[in-house]
Amino acid sequence: MTASLGRIRTVPGAVDAVVVGAGHSGLAMSRALAAAGVDHVVLERGEIANAWRHERWDSLRLLTPNWQNRLPGYRYSGPDPDGYMTSAEVVEFIEGYAKLVAAPLRTGTTVTKLRAEDGGYLVETDRGAWRCRAAVLASGAHGVPAVPAIAARLPHGIRTLTAKEYRNPDALDAGRVLVVGASATGLQLADEIRRSGRPVTIAVGEHIRMPRLYRGRDIQWWLELVGVLDDRYDEVDDIVRARRVPSPQLLGSPERRTLDLNALMAQGVDVVGRLVGVDGCRLQFSGSLANDCAMADLKLNRLLERIDRWCGERRMDDVVGAAERFPATRIERSPRLVLDTSKERVATIIWATGLVPDYSWLDAPVLDAKGRLRHDGGVAAPGLYALGLTFMRRRRSSYFHGAEHDVRDLSAHLKRHLHDSARNVPRRPLPIGVANA
Question: Tens digit of pLDDT for each residue in 240-281?
């Protein structure tokens, strides 16, 4: 049941700010704007936490443990801090936050266009238009499936699904399943489908390998404690590449088990390289599998060395478990490069190739040639902001617990923008060093 969410405008009109999206980022920004006295409205195309309600597979759990799930002024307080929320529990968590925030929310309102006008923005929706001096794009980093162009050349008779459309193994046709993509989503789907008894092949490219537990603690505990999640976008050598790094190979299971390619191969999953071509009935795979796995192993060991070094410097070695290393990824000497679907039937291909934000409604010169938002730590243009994107301001930006600092920084910048625009003062850059101190 949807919560009652405070004052709701009955007629669209003019406000200081419009927030697009009522997920955790949009609600956190609404809380900050309300505290700053900024008149605003939050527009949501569906329901609160809409994507978590309708666009996730049945068994999905968060990759972050419950204790880490927190928002400004709100955190998990249930009986299982080391567990991992199901989709239904995530919806309940966000609804609870929505009750606390009491945002000026309009659900069932789809934004059809947002464009600059008269020194501010005009936000057109299927329920009227809003004028504002600032706008926040809080529709998230995971909007539409990033399906590669090669999908158009697949042999006839193979059913294709995106990870957004997949629900459970029982809904699949009998026969082999090819999962394309080996980040968290791809591994989880390959694991679940193989456990249902179906033969599974997974096509693997660049990936990030991580253990669920290290030295007796959840890996997310280490990433937060050591400071990895606080790495800032203005500190990394190549932020464009950093924002395209796949999500780590993690599974949020009650058993807290590690899921990697070794675990999949132990179950009988066939591991091949990236899907790079289609020649009639022949699916062609890259020969770079060994290199991709070796690089993932190297990065894993560098991360573990960073953790060990941090423990040693603080004399924590006797407080936590012993340092450990994990077996290298075991791949066949000569992984297959071709799968002939005329000889070995593939019933279904699942694209676990990621999701990207949908900015088809954004009519502003802030997108690159591939439709990606150009922004400087979440500031896309004067008075135009984004939230919840991958490594937007910090490595943690797209997580629940990443909203607090990003919202603090950007809401302060937005407030200054409103103040300066009212006085016709030139826009000032966001003071990264000061805001993050």
Answer: 999 999 999 999 999 999 999 999 999 999 999 999 999 999
- DSSP string covering 149-193: GGGGGPPTT-EEEETTT---GGGSPSSEEEEE--SHHHHHHHHHH
Write down the pTM of the prediction. 0.91
Instruction: Please tell me the CATH superfamily of domain 17-143+357-435, with its number.
Output: FAD/NAD(P)-binding domain (3.50.50.60)
Quickly list H helices, 207-331: 219-226, 239-242, 261-266, 289-313
> How many whole angstroms separate alpha carbon 341 and alpha carbon 160?
14
**CATH superfamily placement of domain 145-351:** FAD/NAD(P)-binding domain (3.50.50.60)
Torsion angle, alpha carbons of 201, 207, 209, 212, to 10: -80
CB atoms closer than 10 angstroms to residue 312 = 11
**Which residues in the chain are classed under CATH 3.50.50.60?**
17-143+357-435, 145-351
pLDDT in tens, 69-109: 999 999 999 999 999 999 999 999 999 999 999 999 999 99
CA distance linking residue 76 with residue 399, whole number of Å: 14
